[in-house]
Amino acid sequence: MTTDKNPYQLNSVHVAGYRSLRQISFPVDQLSVFVGANGVGKTNLYRGLQIIQSAAAGSLARELATEGGMASVISAGIKRKDQLGQVNISANFGSNGQTAYSYDIGIGFPPKEAFAAFASEPIVKSETLSLHAGRRKVALLERKGPALWMRNEEGVREQINDDLMFSETALGTVEDPSRFSDLYWLRRTLLDWRFYHGFRTDADAPLRRPCLAITTPTLASDGSNLAAVFATLVHIRGDTTELDRAIEDAFPGAELVVPRPDRHATFGMIFADYPHRVFELEELSDGTLRYLALIGALLAYRLPKFVALNEPETSLHPALLEPLARLIVEAAKHTQIWLVTHSEQLADAIAREGGVEPRRVIRKHGGTWIEGLKITGAFDDEDADM
After folding, report:
1. Which of 46, 113, 255, 360 sits at 20 to 30 Å (Cα–Cα) from 308?
2. Whose CA is closest to 322, among 299, 287, 346?
3. Ranges of CATH 3.40.50.300 domains, the chain
4. Which is it for strands 211-212 and 255-257: parallel, antiparallel or unpaired?
């Protein structure tokens, strides 16, 4: 697959010290598929990417605190804050396999002198954003504890006195596109990422409710604006070719009904067995509604720069996995997609449809690993292709 040149496309990730990810580096492709059994750590790979985005959003400390704080997320059984332990995450960005930027962050327990931090909250130990120009590497941002230096548009390194708290990230705090444009655009790109980890389908779920009729280019992570996404495709774009094809592929003979919205947007389905009856939101089965949400995520008016799917096959009928594979492969022509799944059927279907071989996630020496991955961060078959 090819993609437009994008200096902020994710190329590779390194994670150390986070839960079952003791130390792992791996490349990220236009379409990456990771398959494995329950309990091998697939979700930790996914969460590592969410932590990168949370650094851009300024919510990193909260993200880790909701997991139980540093004592819970530190790997290798480290549970006491007086033990050495740190989470390190690095992400490389660029196009055509060439790194243009790298972002590195180290997270740990507060030092004893950190009067502006609670005893067990995650704090930023170090943070760096670097520009790669061939073999030359230039630090655009350097942060140690609360001290921060940045290189401005003139290339001059200056100290920034933004009074950063220990739990705040510079990536999520500094906002000045006129002076630090590289930081600004990387942050904008990361904030555009979307993570879809299941969709609630209970009676009170956001998916089962009409939503405000606002032109909506991208599906929210909880699917709460799905009706507006469909209304935007049908009534704003006016071209439903891809949407109609996806519905027919998954539900032969069915029709997605999207009334022109007034104050609220909603939708329903007509099925082949009941051609004169519209099934409203509250009547649709859990599997049907989840699949429609995946259609909204992957066929939205404007796709995010990066889409991460965590076990999208959950609660879907096996007959929907082949159409889902086609949907994912087609969407990957327009955006970067990361997928973790325990469904061999889905992974095999994606391999057939898109020629993308899945990577198998395993447990190795007590930690999460990927079959064929070398310590250098490349796969065996990548060397064979050279």
Report:
1. 255
2. 346
3. 200-352
4. unpaired
